[in-house]
Design a protein that fits this description.
single chain; alpha/beta; 11 helices; 9 strands
Length: 309
Amino acid sequence: MNNLSVDHLTGIKDLTREDIELIFKTADSFKEVINRPIKKVPSLRDITIANLFFENSTRTRLSFELAEKRLSADVVNFSASSSSVKKGETLIDTVNNILSMKVDMVVMRHPNPGAAKFLSERITAKVVNAGDGTHEHPTQALLDAFSIRERLGSVEGKKVVIVGDILHSRVALSNIYCLQKLGAEVMVCGPTTLIPKYIHELGVKVEHNLRSALEWCDVANMLRIQLERQEIKYFPSLREYSMQFGLNKEILDSLGKEIIVMHPGPINRGVEITSDVADSKQSIILQQVENGVAVRMAVIYLLASKIER
């Protein structure tokens, strides 16, 4: 199979295992490209991509922009904070205005769940979801699984625990879908108040004791506490959260086995993980960042091949 089964990447839920493996195979080639002295390929020289970010983002936006430029695409950046959205313009009007400038693909982050899907059903350009509210963040899940595959050789049969703010995390949901499609076992761990009620329906294990979760897993993905999404207090204090669910070197060294530590970033050092864990040899956080560019290049390249000329 050399083609994705989907025309847009709005969520991992829509992908098949074959789609994910094709993205990984393509990312392997691009990873080799970005480690060469000349890091550019002319693959998308005639494609224009608009990055629409209706929420603040530094890492994801930079990663997409770099991926697009490595493929030689023309890039238009749009930030909602300094746009007509502030004046009351609707999402469709904003996008149609951008499309009238002959844009082929839209990479969008939006605070509303389902915004990317809504858009993909109404415009002709290809749509990549760079995060929609608390719903999905597909490219993050792909780069996370790609990083596990790179370090452990395969995702199949591995035990992965996702720790922290599962309730507000689009990364958690996309990761669960992606890891399960690739044959991994998934557990979530965190305070009861931050574990969604529906989580059992997704076929994941639930654990409220960090040590038990770490003793079970091969990989621990430590999520950031998303204070900006929390309208009420879900736990007494960050210090208390850190004492119960923060990962430090002492715990890591006492496990009697080596596990891999991941984090989608940005890290609140000293809250989810301490600096000596983030910078340890068991951490693959910087590899995740590097792999993010290769995986996003793969997604953009594969979707661009479906653009009708």
